[in-house]
Design goal:
By secondary structure, this protein is mostly helical. The chain has 24 helices and two strands.
Length: about 475
Amino acid sequence: MAKAFLRRHWVALGYFMSVTILFFLLHKLSPGNAPLIEPDSETYINFSPWRTAGYPAFLWLIRNMGLSLNAVVISQIALFAIALEYLYHTLDSHLRPRWLIFAALIAVSLNPAIIQFHFSIMTESLFITALLWFLSGMIGVLTRPSWRHFLILSIATGGAIVVRPVGYSLVPVLAIAAAAAIWNDRDRSIALGLAAIVPLSLLILASAGISSAVHGKAQTSLAPQQLFSKSMLVSAGPSPYLLNDPRAAMWAFAEARGALPRTYLDQAPEVVRQQLLGPYENFFANPFFHQAILPAAKLASANGAATPQTVVLDVALDRLMAAPIGYAAIAWEDFYGLWTPLGGSADAKAVNAYLARHPAPVLGDKQHPVRFNSPITGARHIAQILGWTFRSIGALALLAAILGVAVIGSKNPAYQGIKIAGMSGLAVHGNFLLVALTALRTARYTMAMWPAIVVCLVWLYVPSRRAVLRLTQRNQSA
């Protein structure tokens, strides 16, 4: 019985044991870095009002059992290992050749960034675990639709959302995959539809209920300040508000204080703009927002008609809608940046040389921190190669998404690989697009979608290989 158990669960047991041993070695050698406390970790540990309830509830559960933060890391590794094994068995049931399955398993499990996420008190590890279940459920829905696969897909989508709001980007993929499966199996449409909708809805409602119970009216979101930071970097023209409207002063303030950075970025070469846009957005969303924007929003909401966050969101959206081309340009830069996670290393030399000749504008009483460390030549070349690789993968994922949507309703089993690759590619591009439109770009967002990128690529291999073989046979017969 023990041998059968080990044969069945070797993926989960092997991953859990090896990564846990690595964690304890790091903990022994470098206690300050294992577990890793990031700047945002405290906001989850203390459940700040702008966080969704998923990860804080996970931390609360472990701490309530009298366990330390080490137990958080071990739990994250264990949950990921279980999800990884389920994905392995899912792939093993539908994908050949087998070496392709092992390649996918190695690519997902041994990514250094993902291992580091497990060691951090941050949302990435649980989000990636939910993503693995999402991918497994999606493959099941697209190959052998059943209420079990629909439940897995729905619960995983809800889990990703309550852990991290960008999980909402998975909802369209769930909707398309579920609709296609239900269309081809209309006899069970009601049961399958409920299995797809109910768990997702219950998890979102539960998260909202917990946040409301803990924070009440103090509950808020990061979206207003992140959108306002983007609106600082567009020229939106004259204020649409009446002069006695407090929002008019906020508009004028944003237009004036963002003028120098806007001009600087507009005149900078593309490589410099690409690398400085993110740091400027972060500056406007964090220290600058709390020092200048939020106090003004509190004054604007003093009559009690709206909260400061609502005022900020109103002004941010109005500014972005007044300059749609500028907003689209910023979103595109952020989207492109998510597909070039190592661009800062590759372009550091050029960016620093430009900054030496053209110093970045001074904001307030200090220079905005936009310096990059120039890496050694070899590291820079490696970063450039990886950058080209990621951009090529992005193009392939986009092509897969287009083809996958085009054939999603077909019953032809030959399109199965394209469907799965397409929905995986759509999940990645949808996630990056949502981040680009509403959040601050960071390489953590890119790496968090790595499993979906891998699944997209391995499933693209099958129809691509079949197409090459057909082309070869035609040429030989001709």
